[in-house]
Amino acid sequence: MKRLRIITLNIAHGRGITPIQGITSSRKIRVNLRKIASLLTTVDPDIVAFQEIDEKARWSGNFDHLDYLRVHAGFPHAAFGINNRRHGILNLTYGNAFLSKHPISHTETVVFGRKKIGEKGFFFAEIEFQGKIIPVINLHLHASSRAQRMSQIENLSTWLKQKTSLEGKRWSISPIVCGDFNNSNQRDDATASLWSQLSVYGDYLVRPINEATFPSPFPRRRLDFIFIPAECRAVECKVIKTIISDHCPVMVEFSLS
User: Strands 132-140 and 176-180: what pairing?
Assistant: First the structure.
């Protein structure tokens, strides 16, 4: 059986490592997106989970970044989960998204609040892989408030219990959860809380274990994770050292039992 390879990456609206949004030209954003596409072509993942990816935003060139990546990286399937939408002169639309080599049969977006900018959320997808239904959750948590992160994890946990009760019998494995958690798993915060709450579905691995993912030029903090359920075997993980974003991509590969 083919092994499944997944990447999670906060794409930082396509601006690379530029710290201020809105000062990068549309041309440079396209160049950076092509670098991301080239990396994806090289490492050849089955599924890519993006955070902070723009559907259409004035501050990042006013074009669909996901479709641009889909075309240049050669993925047949893509889906957007919008967390933020603002109309007018300073329009923006962005959130989480998936690229996939395999059909995406169902998606659902949950936004944690009602702000028009800066809002976080998670994007759920069912992906068909070799006759199996693989549930994947692409998560982005609040950057500066532990209280909000903990509340967001409770929101996710409640939703997941309801979703599992309704749809879980169709899934081939327990849900994979990945994304930008904006905190380490080695302190009393949202990542550790999610790990504990996922235990009701079985024993989960959390990767990476030691490698930092942020900021990408000189990584010091581990903010990006993939939670891998017990049905996954021979798990391998790699943090890809690159400066295509301020976060480094995290890649896992595994076999299904």
Answer: parallel
Q: How confident is the model over 189-211, as pLDDT tens digits?
A: 999 999 999 999 999 999 999 99
pTM above 0.90, yes or no: yes
pLDDT tens digits, 30-52: 999 999 999 999 999 999 999 99
Contact, 39 vs 3, CB < 8 A? no
Domain spans of the chain, in order of start: 4-256
SS3 41: helix
Whole-angstrom distance, CA of residue 158 vs CA of residue 153? 9
DSSP state, residue 124: E
Confirm or reject CATH 3.30.930.10 for domain 4-256, answering yes or no. Answer: no
SS3 state of residue 188: coil
Q: Tell me the helices (H) and strands (E) count for the chain, helix number first.
A: 4, 12
Structural tokens at position 127:
């992906």
